[in-house]
Specification:
alpha+beta, 7-stranded mixed beta sheet, about 25% helix, 7 strands
């Protein structure tokens, strides 16, 4: 698998006054897709809550290239672009392509795992998180940190 792919469906509330997808909706789609992917890899919200850890973001950035309108057919491709061997730190990239396969936007997030009881970075990385991220598709320019 080269990436996780999801076709997006836009709602009226995803639009801004210029009738294209509002900037913050991109981030919402990325966050939802990350959680869906982790769930599909067995890293469910229930598991994270039971084991007392969860993802934390240090940076989230979007580069907008082409506007997206409510009627556009858009596919989001998600993969890791950077990761430490122990999966303690990672970067995930979401690319939004239209049905002509033109890149419309790219979101990049840098994150880690937080111990939700101690409220600090989890150390060591929970094994289930290591396993999930180890099978996460990697970008062509993937960097091992």
């Amino acid at each position: 698998m080269t990436s996780f792919i999801k076709e997006l469906s836009f709602r009226w509330s995803d639009l801004d006054p210029n009738f294209h997808v509002r900037h913050s909706a991109y981030y919402d789609f990325g966050a939802q897709h990350r959680i869906e992917i982790l769930e599909s890899l067995g890293l469910t919200m229930k598991v994270m809550q039971a084991q007392g850890f969860g993802p934390i973001l240090f940076r989230e950035e979007c580069v907008f290239r082409k506007e997206i309108k409510i009627s556009d057919k858009i596919f989001m491709h998600t993969k890791t672009s950077k990761m430490k061997a122990d999966a303690s730190r990672w970067s995930i990239v979401h690319e939004f392509f239209n049905d002509d396969n033109k890149l419309c936007a790219t979101i990049t997030v840098d994150g880690a795992w937080m111990d939700t009881k101690l409220r600090k970075l989890a150390s060591p990385t929970p094994e289930i998180a290591v396993q999930a991220l180890s099978i996460f598709p990697k970008s062509d320019d993937f960097v091992s940190l």
